[in-house]
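Worked Example 4.2. Consider the chain below.
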Amino acid sequence: MLNFTIIPVTPLMQNATLLWDSASKDAVLTDVGGDVEYLLSVVDEHRLNLRKVWLTHAHVDHVSGVPELRTRRNVPILGPQQEDAFWLEELPRIAQAYGLPPTETFTPDRWLNEGDVLQVGQYAFDVLHVPGHTPGSVVFYCAAENLLIAGDVLFLESVGRTDFPRGNQEELFRNIREKLFTLPDLTRVVTGHGAMTTIGHEKRHNPFVRL
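Applying the procedure from the previous section yields the following structure tokens:
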């Protein structure tokens, strides 16, 4: 069975997600934005083998905990897509501006691209490149479990901001309609902030991109 728990971190209440395969106990953390000690305590509480960290995009609230986690657990950092590299270069300055704990810039062990397939134990997640909120935003979709880790692309009846550098509202709306709204309506969506939703709910009720 694929299990997951959503763990809000940082004063910005960003949803890190812990995913694990109950058979193998292999686990992945997504969007390690901070509160690393707490995140690792949840991993250890469930007696899991943390194998990787996946990043949906490079905004500070989603990645600022990565340098600390790398010193605590030697696991590969995957994502986002390489167009977000400029955000990672600015991490120390942006963390200071938002009043977050000091952090360092870093380079992922692997940039991700459309069509990549990632694993949590026996469960496969397709990588979709969904620029608009940031140019390098990606999402992770497990068809077998009808589960989407959406980062800040799609929220409950809302969408990601596009007023940051290299955001693009038209591109975001188009990608949501063409790449996310073609997924099954029952697909559960873990958002980057706030409550979960489903693709079907957003197609009917999202005022920005509903069909």
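The radius of gyration is 16 Å. The longest helix spans residues 169-180. Compare this with Example 4.1 before moving on.
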